[in-house]
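Hey L., structure's done. Input below.
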Amino acid sequence: MPPPMEDSEKLHVSDKITENDDGCSLFLELPEDDPLFEKKKKLLKNKGFDPCGHAYFSCSSSPNWLNSTLDLMIQRARIIQMDEEEIYFADTESIRQGEFYSFRNELEVLNSILSLIDISLSTCTTNKLNLLRYLRDATVNLINKVGENSFLDARAIENCKCEQEKRLLHWSESNGTKTELDVAYFEGEGRGALATRDLQVGDIALEIPVSLIISEDLVHVSDMFDVLKGIDGISPETMLLLWSMKEKDNKNSKFKIYFDTLPEAFNTGLSFRFDAIMALDGTLLMEEIVQAKEHLRNQYDELFPALCNNYPDTFPRELYTWENFLWACELWYSNGMKVMFADGKLKTCLIPVAGFLNHSPCPHIIHYGKVDASTNTLKFPLSRPCKVGEECYLSYGNFPSSHLVTFYGFLPQGKNPYDIIPLDIDGAQADYTKEDSTLHSWSIHMVRATWFSSNHGMFHYGLPPPLLAHLRKAQNPDLRSITTFASLETEMEVLEILHSTFHDMMENLGYMGHEAGDETNWDVILALKFKDLQRKIVLSLLSSCSAGKKLVETEFLKCMAEDTRG
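Output:
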């Protein structure tokens, strides 16, 4: 199975607090076991930060000084919290100016700092309280601004009945669930979770007892476990698929009310028919969906009809059809969450009610997936505020739209920074100096829409620095500076190569899209929307290359004019 909703209970920081008579220091250290340690260490040094440094806040400092020190702390934490894609696409100038990278990064940064402040508030002496409260208020205000800039405006559909969902919510609450959410239908999204009151950072939007979590433990006490445990190499996830296929029709199931709320069809990319798959021609997603469907079909054929023939009472043939198997796969791909239980075991689970939470690149909930041992419940705390009547969003993970289409069946609202196109770059690996290799030496290269970049100037063009550095070295191994006349020739060659690459991509996609008619099936509509998104991304890359070539031509003319005068 591909990764379901991520276990977001991970902060790549080591947090420490020290105090003295006049103030306190907040530490955000870069842990040495971070898989991106060397690259982040280099970025921190480029910014002038010590990887083991700290920010000192004095009780006697002015508000302006406190704000500027907090800002430096945020810039430092932004680098520590960067993921691999953010590092790849990060422009040196953007890092130097301390720019915003992504909603995910910013929420992780501000919440990690807020957590440090809250720990200090619980242990500090009285004379530090005002200082820490000021810092807390300033941090919360910044978190509020992240939400204000998210551009999400899902509108609940009035007078839309959600009777089955309401029954599930009531059943869940009667069995110990605590929630500040209700169920509603939203324009363009389907059902989702609605805040019933104004929720603040740290509030628990949803708390579900372990007894309501569907995990592999239920398979272990079922009649099919004795059969399944004897199958060599079968995974807990596959066992859960087979259990779900039977349990959804079990009238005596403890979870019947949950299964009753599930759709007859999940409408993910795994259910794309021939016309929809062909509509994806020219995209990498076309091959990904074909391969995924083939993999699932092979998996089904390995199990059936053998299980039905050998154990007809346990695996009735009418329940274990290919269509039901695909339904179960889509259920677990689109609703499965990784949960860390109190005993330290990580299991793939279904969480009734939590499945109402939709995904957003700027979610309200990012830290979930770990059972609280003191309450034996799974909690969903807010990382940014959610107003009453507003849809409350979760993060399914840092996924590209292709993954969300294939396994969840939707395109996310807004611009997705993880919509990345991998590149197959010809040429030998560039030979970098030790100084440059840390940041520019990558085994793979990729691009994304250039509207995410704030630097479209000379030698940048909104394109990823490692890609440009690689191509420059490949075209001119002796290149030592990108400010000479000879470097301009290399620069033009690099832009021509990229422009040709992106032109070929656009040719494969087709410059003109096809509008979906009223009778067009859902899968074709979704495929066409995805393909149109790919066109927009590639068009942004082509435009940036064209603009870049004009910049280089201008520099050529300047150099020639200077040579003429000289």
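The two ends are 66 Å apart (CA to CA). The CA atoms of residues 1 and 238 lie 9 Å apart.

-- N.
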